[in-house]
Design goal:
alpha+beta; wza like fold; 27% strand; 200 residues; 20% helix; three-stranded antiparallel β-sheet; five-stranded mixed β-sheet; 2 domains
Length: 200
């Protein structure tokens, strides 16, 4: 049975390892609290001090760029809001004297490398923007929990560590239905949670 489980993980998921009951390691403090990076689909408010005609809301396009008055096709993806604001200031300095720009996020998506993806038997499978100190329970609340067909205690968490994909077992049924708080593992940017259907 163990051999079958390992073969299933390798063939079906195309992953490097199936680690049974091994809990995923906690992300480092640096990873958990690293600055938010802008991603495609994010909505940004760009405020140019004393220039309301230049201030605007923009959505980051699928190509990772944004455009605003006087500034076209500037790359936003992978930058912090402050980094993008400094670059916009540099572009605007051709037209304004000492422009001061502030960029704030209105809607968060984030780059793919920092999203939490939940697939399978979740009520609303989707990708979530990673937040500092995010846990498995936080993610399950955002997707509405499990469907009635879910085998939550056979769920798998996929994490990339040192450019290698590792898989870990997570017990979502135990967490949600039995209140087993030890099953509430911390998540890391880029995690994938796969929830299989139970056998009848």
């Amino acid at each position: 049975m163990r051999a079958f489980s390992r073969a299933f993980c390798a063939l079906t998921l195309g992953l490097s390892a199936c680690q049974g009951g091994v809990a995923p390691p906690a992300p480092s403090a640096e990873t958990a609290t690293s600055p938010y990076l802008i991603g495609p689909g994010d909505t940004l408010t760009i405020f140019v001090w004393r220039n309301p005609e230049l201030s605007t809301d923009v959505t980051v396009r699928p190509d990772g760029r944004v455009s605003m008055p006087l500034v076209e096709d500037i790359t936003a993806t992978g930058k912090t809001p402050s980094e993008l604001a400094r670059e916009v200031e540099t572009r605007l300095s051709k037209y304004l004297s000492s422009p001061l720009v502030t960029i704030m996020q209105k809607q968060f998506v984030g780059p793919f490398s920092r999203q939490i993806r939940i697939i399978g038997e979740a009520v609303q499978p989707k990708a979530l923007a990673y937040r500092a100190n995010m846990t498995l329970l936080d993610a399950m609340i955002e997707v509405g929990g499990l469907t009635r067909f879910a085998a939550g205690d056979r769920a798998t968490l996929v994490r990339t560590i040192d450019d290698k994909q590792e898989t870990y077992s997570v017990q979502i049924d135990s967490l949600i239905r039995d209140g087993d708080i030890q099953s509430n593992v911390p998540l890391s940017p880029g995690d994938i949670i796969i929830i299989p259907q139970r056998f009848f």
